[in-house]
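PROTEIN DESIGN WORKSHEET
SECTION A - STRUCTURE
LENGTH: 479
TOKENS:
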């Protein structure tokens, strides 16, 4: 019989392995090998690139070793001569992105610079003098995809723009001071939609949502409100990618107010995720404000208040809310908010009124004395909250002005209960709704359209555009 025994000491074997590979620095530094200590040469197969870039790679005969070395590709004269500037920009943008994706414990500043390089080359391919000429062509689509995913990584590594790299750590001078910078990034809690990097049309930016909490002057829970908006994060550059130093601007836009911008003489659409803020609006934690609203509320417009389940119970309401808010007619006539009716302990009707009225007052202090609301409820908790609100308003002392006026109510049956230990599946489009969800969407649109009718409705035909036209602005750094 042969018996296998454990060696008395692993030290001789580890020492031999260290010598064979690259010395003992990996063992002595805590068991992890840094990129500079690897003895192997990084490679990148052309199959990792887009089909457009693959065609250029095949034409140039680039090897996996060359593709894994974007710095070398930048100085490759053969590649510069044998491809158009825009094709070269695409190959370099994708090569830098893949290099950043394959980082092995490199300093954050180095990884960040690789994604800046990827975004910079894609940006130059989109907006340079020799950039793509057919906005909806495949080359432009691939460049916008390369740009958007690189921007997403820049956002991630800079804490959503809150911590830009210092000038000593990067060839890029990074700031938050672009022309007409719309949002102050430090004031918003930003969540990006990682699934949305491309679309049917060329649109730039990393899309997601931004939320912030507002507190009334008295600081009471009834005067707390959270507002959320769809945002797009972009990076713009002042110089060409070949310059030794370049200034980069980190910018975020509220795409409720602007869906396109001017860059270097071109009108370009901003990527947007209308669903993202609604997922946040229907996600309420125990310490979160009880009222959450879409952030472009106007004090003179009525407000739709959803008294419906959170996404822990159903993902249908974010889709329904987003679809209603995207309707051009309804967006013009209404503000939109949500309250989780299953609050524990359950508020009284008067407390529900205070939560809605107090939150709306904090959101826009110039709100009318008696704010008009349309209540949309689902299930026993939502239906009960709607009834309590109407009862509390009706029972107010004679002559005392009610803080809310209920102009309409819709109530829907509770969603089917989920099986134990089963989470609801995220939805993305109205086509994913159940039959009940589709009926709710149609009924809400019908009621809101009737109430907003300029001749027969109760709201007098007020619109967001006539009340407060959106200011025009431009972002135009010089390449």
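SECTION B - SEQUENCE
RESIDUE ASSIGNMENT:
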């Amino acid at each position: 019989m042969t018996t296998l025994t454990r060696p008395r000491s692993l030290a001789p074997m580890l020492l031999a392995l260290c010598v064979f590979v690259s010395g003992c620095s990996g063992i002595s530094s805590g068991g992890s090998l840094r990129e500079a200590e690897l003895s192997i040469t990084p490679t990148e197969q052309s199959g990792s690139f887009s089909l457009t870039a693959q065609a250029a790679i095949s034409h140039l005969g680039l090897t996996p070793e060359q593709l894994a070395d974007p710095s070398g590709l930048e100085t490759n004269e053969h590649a510069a001569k044998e491809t158009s500037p825009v094709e070269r920009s695409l190959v370099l943008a994708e090569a830098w992105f893949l290099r950043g994706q394959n980082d092995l414990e490199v300093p954050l500043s180095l990884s960040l610079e690789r994604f800046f390089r990827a975004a910079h080359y894609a940006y130059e391919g989109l907006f340079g003098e020799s950039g793509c000429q057919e906005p909806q062509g495949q080359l432009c689509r691939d460049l916008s995809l390369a740009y958007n995913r690189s921007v997403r990584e820049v956002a991630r590594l800079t804490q959503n723009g809150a911590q830009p790299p210092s000038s000593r750590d990067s060839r890029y001078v990074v700031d938050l001071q672009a022309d007409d910078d719309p949002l102050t990034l430090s004031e918003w809690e930003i969540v990006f939609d990682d699934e949305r990097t491309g679309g049917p049309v060329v649109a730039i930016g990393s899309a997601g949502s931004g939320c912030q909490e507002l507190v009334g002057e008295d600081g009471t829970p009834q005067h707390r409100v959270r507002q959320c908006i769809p945002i797009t994060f972009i990076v713009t550059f002042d110089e060409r990618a070949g310059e030794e130093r370049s200034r980069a601007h980190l910018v975020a836009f509220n795409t409720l107010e602007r869906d396109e911008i001017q860059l270097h003489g071109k009108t370009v659409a901003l990527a947007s995720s209308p669903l993202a803020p609604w997922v946040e609006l229907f996600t309420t934690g125990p310490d979160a404000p009880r009222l959450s609203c879409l952030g472009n509320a106007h004090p003179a417009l009525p407000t739709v208040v959803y008294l419906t389940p959170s996404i822990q119970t159903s993902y249908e309401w974010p889709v329904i809310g987003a679809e209603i808010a995207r309707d051009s007619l309804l967006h013009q006539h209404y503000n939109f908010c949500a309250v989780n009716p299953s609050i524990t302990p359950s508020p009284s009707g008067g407390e529900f009124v205070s939560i809605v009225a107090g939150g709306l007052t904090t959101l826009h202090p110039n709100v009318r004395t008696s704010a008009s609301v349309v209540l949309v409820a689902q299930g026993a908790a939502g239906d009960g909250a709607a009834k309590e609100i109407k009862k509390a308003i009706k029972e107010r002392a004679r002559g005392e002005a009610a803080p809310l006026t209920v102009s309409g109510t819709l109530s829907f049956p509770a969603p089917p209960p989920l099986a134990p230990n089963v989470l609801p599946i995220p939805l993305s489009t109205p086509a994913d709704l159940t039959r009940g969800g589709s009926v709710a969407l149609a009924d809400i649109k019908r009621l809101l359209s009737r109430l907003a009718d300029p001749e027969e409705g109760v709201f007098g035909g007020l619109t967001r555009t006539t009340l407060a036209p959106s200011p025009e602005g431009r972002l135009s750094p010089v390449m």
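SECTION C - NOTES
Confidence is low (pLDDT under 50) at residues 1-32, 469-479.
The CA atoms of residues 216 and 362 lie 5 Å apart.
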